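REQUEST FORM: STRUCTURE PREDICTION
Request ID: SP-0412
Submitted by: Lab K.M.
Chain count: 1
Length (residues): 168
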Amino acid sequence: MLIPGLLQTADYATAIFKGGQVMKTCDTERLTEARLARQRILDREDRPTFWAVIDEAALRKQVGGIAVMRDQLHQLCRMAERRNVGIQVLQDAVGAHTSMTGGFTILDYQASEDPSIIYVEVGAAGDLFLEKPEDVAHYRKSYGYLRASALSADASVTYIENLAKNLK
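STATUS: Completed
RESULT:
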């Protein structure tokens, strides 16, 4: 339901944090600044590869209003131009899919002695970090299904560009 945090604009992130109407302004500002600081990992010399499969619903939900959402869609297109970032759109026509209960992130590390970790954002209840090989295998299978069901990276950028153009 959300654009991944590493791809969010400041205004989109702020709108997300304000959306619950339970945070103080100073908290939303602090969280937005932290999110933007984390995004710098994609600019480092040793930057990781980041590949996101984004549900179409997240692209259509007007978080922060039309101007904020249009800027966010343009940001996705700019990020997709990077060699270390891939974006695919999972269209509504796919129907039910393996990630409908919530998003997840697979964290792989270069060092072979560091096992992969699955990060599941649960929300207000906290977050989960899964390391068991069977959990990692399950989420890898889900991720493979999502990528296979989504538009290609090129078709996804075209789709996002068209959404931005038609946003009224």
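NOTES: Residues 46-166 form one domain.
Reviewed by: T.R.
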